[in-house]
Design a protein that fits this description.
single chain; about 260 residues; alpha+beta; Glutaredoxin; 10 helices; globular; AhpC/TSA family protein; PXL2A/B/C
Length: about 260
């Protein structure tokens, strides 16, 4: 399987204008190209990954890295996603059935089939098992990290920032100092951001997930140089496993 060849041959609908174009459009002249194949656009992993890309957008731009992202959903899903995360709709493409994920042989997640259930119902059943760590190694440990904090991860919420994560009241970033200080990921800090994402996703579920049959599908990350050489890849094996180093998900960009 030639990953770059598959990506170059793939055309999908671009969220910004609805045009069907190559997902590598705009990457040809970049010093490096970061191609992220995301799971469902309402997925925890996808929303969190986009948050990290927005956080590091300045550094990524200074390094001359072009970004292309493909998520499972339709254009309405993509528009909602970009409005919420701030991700550039010119860089986001949608794949309604996860066909590209299958071409790249990305992990489809659990695929148990119970008799009498529809594909959508079976997907929900398998997703719940994966959330419990079954067929999704490391998921529970990553959930707990969000609550206990992580001194190897940077501070995620500025002291003056106010986070609204229903059903919690608005929380000012300085509140997390009470849980352990500053300058690193404090206890409950990441869990609060994830709660905000969950509220957004569930409140707009039909928009984010027009077809729930692909809920368990996982994604992948691919980084290429200007000559098309694959510098780095990560293939997700679990929910909340979208990076090799979840404490600093984009650290691989500084090592290559």
């Amino acid at each position: 399987m030639n990953t770059l060849a598959i990506l170059r041959e793939t055309q999908r609908q671009r969220v910004s204008d609805g045009a069907i174009v190559s997902i590598m459009d705009g990457c040809e002249s970049a010093s490096r190209s970061l191609v992220t194949i995301w799971s469902q656009l309402g997925d925890f992993d996808t929303l969190e990954y986009a948050w990290w890309l927005q956080r590091e957008a300045g550094k990524i731009q200074r390094q001359g890295i072009a970004i292309a992202a493909v998520g499972i959903g339709d254009r309405a899903s993509g528009q909602r996603f970009c409005n919420y995360t701030g991700f550039d709709p010119n860089c986001l493409f949608v794949d309604p059935t996860g066909e590209l994920h299958r071409q790249l042989e990305l992990y489809p997640g659990l695929s148990l089939k119970l008799p009498g259930l529809s594909p959508s119902q079976n997907a929900w059943f398998n997703l719940l098992l994966m959330c419990a760590g079954i067929g999704s190694p490391g998921t529970l440990a990553e959930v707990f990290r969000g609550y206990r904090g992580d001194r190897s991860s940077p501070q995620l919420i500025d002291d003056e920032e106010v986070v609204k994560a229903t059903p919690l009241p608005p929380i000012k970033g300085s509140f997390f100092k009470l849980a352990g200080g500053s300058g690193f990921q404090r206890p409950f800090e990441l869990a609060t951001l994830r709660l905000r994402n969950m509220t957004e996703s569930l409140s707009n579920w039909q928009t984010y997930v027009p077809n729930s049959a692909y809920l368990t599908q996982r994604g992948g990350t691919f980084l290429f140089d200007s000559h098309g050489t694959l510098l780095y890849e990560h293939r997700d094996r679990s929910i909340l496993g979208f990076a090799e180093n979840m404490s600093q998900p984009l650290s691989f960009l500084c090592k290559i």
